[in-house]
Design brief:
By secondary structure, the chain is mainly alpha-helical. The protein has 2 helices and no strands. Helix 1 runs antiparallel to helix 2. It is a peripheral membrane protein.
């Protein structure tokens, strides 16, 4: 029985590579989104710490006599504003990555569908090939059995 040869094997390989490439790109985008989320969380922790320190400073100045230093409060407010701007910028970048992520997901679905289409075609052609070969072998065996029967009658 001659081996089965799928004539679209190169296309199947090409579509598998494309799917794998899209999948890797999707992973890179997810990792970048995770990094942005980590940075946003760290900035939020810094802002929370700053607010706690400011509140502690203000509460301490009420209980004790040292005056509230206006320049310190202004500096803390400016710093908090900078942190908030950084967070906004990171959120904006993350939103752009979210859009890219969705595009890559769609590309991955399409690439996976193409791979499955070619794999189904390969399976069908392999099954057809096997059926043909089995019929050929059966015909050859029937012919051989018939020839033996004719030969044995002589």
């Amino acid at each position: 029985m001659p081996p089965f040869h799928f004539r679209f094997d190169s296309l199947l390989t090409l579509h598998r590579r494309r799917r794998d490439e899209v999948s890797r790109e999707l992973g890179k985008i997810r990792a970048a989104i995770d990094q942005f989320n980590d940075q946003i969380d760290r900035l939020q922790q810094q802002r929370d710490t700053l607010r706690q320190e400011t509140a502690h400073h203000l509460a301490g100045s009420v209980d004790s006599a040292p005056p509230v230093r206006l320049d310190r409060l202004q500096h803390e407010a400016r710093y908090d504003g900078q942190l908030a701007q950084e967070q906004d910028s990171l959120r904006s970048n993350r939103k752009q990555l979210d859009v890219e992520l969705e595009q890559q997901r769609r590309c991955l679905v399409e690439a996976e569908a193409e791979v499955k289409r070619f794999e189904r075609l390969r399976e069908k052609q392999a099954a057809t090939h096997q059926q043909r070969e089995q019929k050929r072998e059966q015909a050859a065996m029937d012919e051989l059995a018939q020839a033996r029967m004719i030969y044995s009658r002589r």
